[in-house]
Amino acid sequence: MSPIPLNNATFSLLLGTFAHVSLLKNFELDTWIPLFFVTSLASLTSLIFYHVHYDALSPAATLFYTVKEATCFLLGVFTSMTIYRLFFHRIRHFPGPILARVTRFYNLYLSGKNVKYYDELDKLHNQYGDFIRTGPREISILRKSAVSLIYGPQSACLKSTWYSAVSNDSAKAQMFYSRDPVDHKRRRKAWDRAFSVKSLRTYAPLIRAKVEQLTSTLASSATAPKDATAWMMMLAFDIMGEVGYGQDFGGIDTGKEHPAAKAIHDHMTILSVVGTVPWLLYLLQFIPGASKGYAPFFKWSTGQIQGKKATWNPEKEPKDIASWLIKAVMEKDVSASPTTASLNDDGRLIIIAGSDTSASANACTLYYLASNPHILAKLQSRLDAAMPNGPQDWSYDSVASINYLDDVIKESLRLKPPVITGGYRVTPPEGLQVDEVYIPGDVNVIVPIQLIHTDKKYWKKPLDYIPERWGERKEELGTDETLFMPFSQGLTNLKAIGVYKCVGDKMAMISMRIAISSIVQQFDLRLASGETGEAFDKERKDAFTTVLKPLQLLFVPRKKFGKA
Ligand code: HEM
């Protein structure tokens, strides 16, 4: 029996085409994926019901016709989608690999291949130019003017669907995932308070205490090589424990990486690879056990937040980031996290955003200093000139006055930005004019951080580590600060601003100044025997943040201080 018309292959094919052209084409599938699945399930159930009751088909025939019709329907959808994306889409004129124009699964493949998406993107830019289509509605741009247009304070671009991959409901998620600009701006105020000048002043001594604990530990077994990657990770976690929650993670004490560190790396790798197809990442969390490795960290941070709430004292000034966020909730401030779930998620954001990034920045700076003895010696001489009696003279004010220290840190952030590629933004409905190129509205755009930092159009000796390019050789090397965006910032009058830029950028700089100055003041750094630094340099994983290979260094205590 061949019931008409529902089991008709042509009809199903046409229905699929019609569904794409009239409906799906206009939807942001990433945001509507639950509805899409419920509707698909309901349609399949109705089809089965129709075949059983109206066509009186046997179970085997019902299965056969349902599968056939569903397959034809999907064939219609995907054929229409492919033709549309290749020949009719508003960004069809942009060059890029053919598969990338059709599906984001191509990006998933590129990201997952070696988890070095920045390398893949570099190859694509070399092949196709400054503007490339890296997805059906996604463009990667390597142009200076795009930085402030997309990331600057006046930008009309919003956060892309990538940010709704973890949750479609921003009321239940951390501030970072809030795509509604009004909601984001409101919630960001509570975070801004946690990083005010006054708050930062209370964090600096906590950071210094952790760094001192590290330098004593390093000094106690000075002849043995140490894995700088692991120790910088322990330091960063311990700092974020103290500054974020007023808690000691005990990493430096025990010499063991906090279990949350591995969980966060795994989580970030999944986020960056699977997140290239945001709806897929969204679905992944419904697979039982998918976030098992992450559970202890969830439990710890939720316990901390809820514990602080339970013992809240309104008279006490907050001393850590979490307490600032809780204060907004307890005082029912407009900036407060809207739900318990979102506050708990904000609590996780503190550690995730602040630890990995700072650890990677410090480890990379130590790598460059150990590999460039003349730069290390110059930095030590500047530190010695400012603090002639060595560590006993150390003060943050002295350290902050040493421009060369900032130059060293900035050059590391340029060559090895901890957030390697960065976040996508969506163009406003009226589109975006970048130099001679018009990008239509509702298109995901990105300026890949590491690639713009090393673009030979804009940088002389782009791959060389030259801290002087930020100071005395600025003019000679033509350094343009507006191209420097490790915190996803756009610059205006050399002030780092941007609606979605890193809220912890100032704390990050303070933390790096304290860590690098203290270590370099007390130790000479050398690559340990057998360590070339090559794997560390070349094999970084792009897991949104960076996952670094081990780096074996010798921390040799310095005997003399004073002016060189
Ligand atoms: C060297 C260290 C750091 C680097 C390079 C860095 C980089 C970044 C970047 C690139 C973004 C924007 C990501 C995007 O566009 O999606 C960001 C956002 C953020 N960072 Fe950092 N970060 C660092 C340290 C920190 C620290 C210490 C904290 C403190 C908790 C922090 C907290 C945040 C938060 C909360 C956001 C989300 C901001 C928002 O969505 O409004 N970061 N960071």
Automatic annotation (TrEMBL):
<feature type="binding site" description="axial binding residue">
    <location>
        <position position="502"/>
    </location>
    <ligand>
        <name>heme</name>
    </ligand>
</feature>
<dbReference type="InterPro" id="IPR050121">
    <property type="entry name" value="Cytochrome_P450_monoxygenase"/>
</dbReference>
<dbReference type="GO" id="GO:0016705">
    <property type="term" value="F:oxidoreductase activity, acting on paired donors, with incorporation or reduction of molecular oxygen"/>
</dbReference>
<keyword id="KW-0812">Transmembrane</keyword>
<dbReference type="GO" id="GO:0004497">
    <property type="term" value="F:monooxygenase activity"/>
</dbReference>
<dbReference type="GO" id="GO:0020037">
    <property type="term" value="F:heme binding"/>
</dbReference>
<dbReference type="GO" id="GO:0005506">
    <property type="term" value="F:iron ion binding"/>
</dbReference>
<dbReference type="Pfam" id="PF00067">
    <property type="entry name" value="p450"/>
</dbReference>
<dbReference type="InterPro" id="IPR002401">
    <property type="entry name" value="Cyt_P450_E_grp-I"/>
</dbReference>
<dbReference type="InterPro" id="IPR036396">
    <property type="entry name" value="Cyt_P450_sf"/>
</dbReference>
<protein>
    <submittedName>
        <fullName>Monooxygenase</fullName>
    </submittedName>
</protein>
<keyword id="KW-0349">Heme</keyword>
<dbReference type="InterPro" id="IPR001128">
    <property type="entry name" value="Cyt_P450"/>
</dbReference>
<keyword id="KW-0408">Iron</keyword>
<keyword id="KW-1133">Transmembrane helix</keyword>
<feature type="transmembrane region" description="Helical">
    <location>
        <begin position="31"/>
        <end position="51"/>
    </location>
</feature>
<keyword id="KW-0472">Membrane</keyword>
<keyword id="KW-0479">Metal-binding</keyword>
<keyword id="KW-0560">Oxidoreductase</keyword>
<feature type="transmembrane region" description="Helical">
    <location>
        <begin position="63"/>
        <end position="84"/>
    </location>
</feature>
<keyword id="KW-0503">Monooxygenase</keyword>
